[in-house]
Amino acid sequence: MKRQHPTRSDNLRRALAQEAARIMAEQGIGDFLTAKRKAAERFGVGDGGALLPKNSEIEAALAAYQRLFGGATHLSSLQAQRRAALNAMRYLQEFSPRLVGAVLSGTATEHSGIQLHLFAERAESVTLKLIDAGIVHEVAEKRVRLNPERVRPFPEVRFEMDDQPIEATVFPTDGIRQAPVSPVDGRPMRRANTFEVETLVQEDG
After folding, report:
1. How far apart, in Å, are the Cα atoms of 204 and each of 2, 7, 86, 187?
2. Which fold has domain 72-204?
């Protein structure tokens, strides 16, 4: 069987994924679409073209970039983020916290916020808990894709733990049964409970 060589469009797509990954790592951009558009602009490619890489391709390129250029600095930053996530999860244990996103996958940059999912009947229960501890916070709204056809707004509570920014989306208690759609691959988002994050932190050393 004849081996197929990468086409020019394949090479351009790979270059776009690598450039978007570099932008995310160096400029602290956490949104795939924004990084993708910046990369397309740099290469003179229309941002609606079929040549644009998938988010999963950019995430893979970001992981490769961090292995190549991040080194000990990236690992140290990731360890600090995961320890802060664990401390926040322990404090908010009554809300069945789950870690999601780049800090869980290991592709977080030093600019990434720690993303948690919390589960409560009322978002005010979370804010009251923070008020009791004197933790400064703000409440915003985050639009979450529950499935390919449905997007819904949920309260998001933002605060800091161990000098790390936390973004905690508050779902109803039954929201723990079905994870939202991942912006990376369109599959149910991976969620890690406190025990799983403790294991990650131990493995990080």
Report:
1. 43, 39, 13, 26
2. Beta Polymerase; domain 2 (3.30.460)
